[in-house]
Structures are given as structure tokens and as C-alpha cells.
């Protein structure tokens, strides 16, 4: 019985090592964020390049055109509405398995969108009035994320990620916080 | 245990994927100070039962904001400005009771009003003379000591707050308007015999 259990364990370890080897041999991955697409009407695409060892790097781009955010912006519940983000990142795998592992990342974010402010103008008769003026903003953020990734059939990736960053250079107009939250479905090759 | 991790991660993702930051707020509100937009009809402090207490607001769309002209209508597009006041009757030395009457008993001369725990007054825009108008009489049906204050929806004691009822996506103008004939606590006292 002990021999049988030992053989099963050995077979399992060998199988996992083979799976790790197969996945590690694939260095590129594309992903799409299905959570953002459903919840935030945001198109979010990511690319990741894997190095030998535990590090990888990549970037995420997303474009947003949420009706809810646009309505809130128009109705004055917020004074900015993010439209795009470009988020380069570096990741470190926290688990030994290549098939299922936790990871931590640091990311930067070049982001921008629409900004609205109230201004006082004077009409042609010299009478003042208040109105809103729209403009564009851009900002740069730094942040960190934690996530979990798993592979099916050695190529299909499912990834959960939660992270936050802080805008740094234009906080008067940009959102204070950049969130990097998603459920990504990807393909590794 | 792994299932727990998945559930936790998915839950966190859903919770914060649409979370709000401190960017939320009311970014379409403008606050200005324009005194003396609301008045009480000049009258001796002694009324008689059956008389009405008239509150008025009749002001041009063009106002003076700290020495500079301001167009209220162009700013807001509002057909109405709302404000509130409350009338109380003295029950004993330290107790005052809100006086409520049926809305049909209000004498609405200009504008509109709703009566409940307080009088909700609506100054309506008259595009002929380009003014916002309100004149409503409150029936005084019993003898006693009364007081009127504008503080029901306000923390200020010496002013009344008028708020534009602006169309969607237009600016909302909040006017803080000093009032006269009130004491330091914000009450206008009068008697009914």
C-alpha cells in the first residue's frame, strides 16, 4: 500500500514538473479583462513576457466609455471621467508552481480622461454667469497589485488581480486613485 | 482552502472594481451670497385671528454678487427656486409646536407652496418681467405667541437658503440670503389676538 502511495506521489510530482516545464517554455501571453468589460464597459487588454525564473513584465492598455460614469460626470457627481490607461508592470511569482501561483506586481500608469470645472464668465452685455468647462487631463501613477493565476491545458490562463495606484502629478484634475482590478482570461504561447 | 482563496479574490475584485474614490461629490453646485431676497410683509407684531402672515420673494434674474452682476437664469436654466420656513406656536414657557395647515388654506398669490412639517416655498420664474416670484399667506387661526424661522433646512440663523431647481445636467445655484426682522437666534416673533 505504501509503495502504491509512493508511486502515485512520484507520478504526481513528475506530472507537475512536466507541466511546469511546458508552461515555462511559453514566454508570451495575451489577456482580456472580462470583469472590466462586464462591470465597467471598459476594454482592457494585457500582454506579459515571461523570463526564466520568477520575474515577468508586460503592459496593460484599457479604454473606458461607461455610460454610468459619463452620466455621473454630466450630472455633477464627479468632476473627472477616466478614458484611457497605459499600465506597464513588473511581476514576481510568489509560488513555485508555474501552473497555479500567486504574484505581486508594481505598475506605472499613464492615464487620462475628461475633466470639468465651474467657471464664471461674462456675456456680451457684461452680465456674469456660471457655467461648466470641459477639458482633458493626463497624469502618471505608481502602484502595486496582488493576484492569482492558473492555467488550463497548459495555455489558457485565468487571472485574478487586485491593485491600487496613486496619481502623482495632476491630482487637481485626475482621480486620486487608479485601481487595477480584473478577472482576465488569456492565452500563453 | 484553495476554493476559499478563489472566492476571496473574486469577492475583492467585484467589491473594488467599481469602487468610488474621493472624487465623488457634487460638482455642479455653485454657492453665492445675495442678501434680502426673502421678506415678511411689513406688519405690526400684533396680528388678529383670521389674518394671514405673508412671506414674499420677488427678485430679478439679474442680481448683484459682491458688486458684480450675475444672471441667475442663465446660470441655472431653473424655472423655480426653493426655500423653506417654519411657523411655530408657543405651548408653554419653553415649548413650541409646529403649526401645520391644510395646503388649501394657504393663500398662494404668486409661486407655489407645500405645507407639512415646514412650508416649502417655490419661487416661480416669470419670463415677462424676468423675475422669480413668491407670495404666500399663512392663516393665523388661533390666538397665541408665534415665531417664524428659516432654519429648518439650514444651519444659518440669519439667512435663508434658496436652491435652484435646475434641469438635469445644469448647474444648481445655492443662494445664501441674509434676512432682516429676525433676532440673533433667527426667529421673527409675533402675537395673534
What is this structure's SSE topology?
The complex is a heterodimer of chains A (189) and B (193).
Chain A: H1 2-24, E1 28-33, H2 34-39, E2 42-50, E3 55-64, H3 67-74, E4 80-93, E5 100-122, E6 128-152, E7 156-167, E8 177-188
Antiparallel strand pairs in A: 1-2, 1-8, 2-3, 3-4, 4-5, 5-6, 6-7, 7-8
Chain B: H1 2-17, E1 29-33, E2 38-40, E3 46-47, E4 52-60, E5 62-65, E6 68-71, H2 72-76, E7 80-92, E8 95-98, E9 107-110, E10 112-115, E11 119-126, E12 131-139, E13 144-149, E14 159-164, E15 172-178, E16 187-192
Parallel strand pairs in B: 1-15, 3-16
Antiparallel strand pairs in B: 2-4, 4-12, 5-6, 7-8, 7-11, 7-13, 7-14, 9-12, 10-11, 11-12, 13-16, 14-15
Query: What is the approximate shape of chain B?
Result: globular
Question: Could you say which structural class the secondary elements and strand pairing of chain B correspond to?
Answer: mainly beta
Radius of gyration of chain B, whole Å: 22 Å
Helix content range of the residues of chain B, please?
Answer: 10-25%
Q: What proportion of the residues of chain A form beta strands (DSSP E)?
A: over 45%
Strand content of chain B: over 45%
According to DSSP, the number of beta strands of chain B is 16
- Please list the strands of the largest sheet of chain A in the order they lie side by side: 1-2-3-4-5-6-7-8
Unreliable stretches of chain B (pLDDT < 50, length at least 5) are: 20-25
The number of distinct helices of chain B, counting runs of at least 4 residues, comes to 2
Q: Low-confidence spans of chain A: pLDDT under 50, at least 5 residues?
A: none
Outline the biggest β-sheet of chain B: 14 strands, mixed
Strand/helix succession of chain B: HEEEEEEHEEEEEEEEEE
Using CB atoms under 8 Å apart, which protein chain pair has the greatest interface?
A-B, 33 and 34 residues
The end-to-end span of chain A amounts to 40 Å
Described by its quaternary structure, the protein is: heterodimer
Q: Compute the gyration radius of chain A: what is it? A: 23 Å
Total count of strands of chain A:
8
Output the helix-strand order of chain A. Answer: HEHEEHEEEEE
Taking the alpha carbons of the first and last residues of chain B, their distance comes to: 80 Å
Amino acid at each position: 500500500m505504501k509503495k502504491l502511495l509512493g508511486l502515485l506521489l512520484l507520478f504526481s510530482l513528475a506530472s507537475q514538473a512536466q507541466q511546469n516545464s511546458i508552461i515555462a517554455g511559453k514566454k508570451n501571453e495575451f489577456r482580456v479583462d472580462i470583469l472590466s468589460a462586464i462591470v465597467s464597459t471598459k476594454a482592457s487588454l494585457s500582454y506579459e513576457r515571461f523570463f526564466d525564473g520568477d520575474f515577468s513584465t508586460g503592459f496593460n492598455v484599457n479604454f473606458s466609455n461607461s455610460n454610468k460614469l459619463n452620466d455621473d460626470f454630466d450630472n455633477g457627481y464627479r468632476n473627472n471621467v477616466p478614458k484611457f490607461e497605459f499600465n506597464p508592470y513588473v511581476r514576481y511569482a510568489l509560488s513555485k508552481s508555474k501552473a497555479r501561483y500567486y504574484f505581486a506586481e508594481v505598475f506605472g500608469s499613464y492615464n487620462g480622461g475628461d475633466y470639468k470645472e465651474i467657471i464664471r464668465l461674462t456675456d456680451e452685455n457684461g452680465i456674469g454667469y456660471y457655467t461648466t468647462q470641459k477639458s482633458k487631463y493626463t497624469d502618471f501613477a505608481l502602484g502595486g497589485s496582488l493576484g492569482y493565476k492558473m492555467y488550463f491545458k497548459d495555455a489558457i490562463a485565468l487571472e485574478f488581480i487586485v491593485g491600487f495606484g496613486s496619481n502623482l502629478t495632476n491630482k487637481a484634475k485626475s482621480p486620486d486613485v487608479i485601481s487595477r482590478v480584473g478577472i482576465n482570461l488569456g492565452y500563453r504561447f | 482552502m484553495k476554493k476559499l482563496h478563489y472566492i476571496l479574490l473574486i469577492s475583492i475584485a467585484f467589491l473594488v472594481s467599481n469602487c468610488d474614490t474621493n472624487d465623488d461629490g457634487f460638482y455642479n453646485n455653485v454657492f453665492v451670497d445675495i442678501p434680502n431676497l426673502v421678506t415678511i410683509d411689513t406688519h405690526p407684531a400684533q396680528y388678529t385671528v383670521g389674518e394671514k402672515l405673508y412671506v414674499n420673494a420677488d427678485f430679478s434674474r439679474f442680481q448683484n454678487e459682491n458688486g458684480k452682476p450675475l444672471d441667475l437664469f442663465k446660470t441655472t436654466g431653473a424655472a423655480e427656486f426653493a426655500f423653506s420656513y417654519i411657523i411655530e406656536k408657543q405651548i408653554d414657557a419653553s415649548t413650541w409646536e409646529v403649526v401645520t395647515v391644510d395646503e388649501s388654506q394657504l393663500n398662494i398669490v404668486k409661486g407655489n407652496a407645500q405645507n407639512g412639517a415646514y412650508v416649502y416655498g417655490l419661487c416661480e420664474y416669470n419670463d415677462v418681467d424676468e423675475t422669480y416670484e413668491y407670495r404666500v399667506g399663512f392663516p393665523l387661526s388661533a390666538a397665541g405667541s408665534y415665531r417664524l424661522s428659516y432654519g429648518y433646512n439650514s444651519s444659518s440663523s440669519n439667512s435663508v437658503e434658496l436652491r435652484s431647481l435646475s434641469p438635469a445636467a445644469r448647474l444648481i445655484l445655492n443662494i445664501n440670503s441674509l434676512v432682516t426682522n429676525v433676532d440673533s437666534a433667527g426667529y421673527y416673533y409675533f402675537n395673534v389676538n
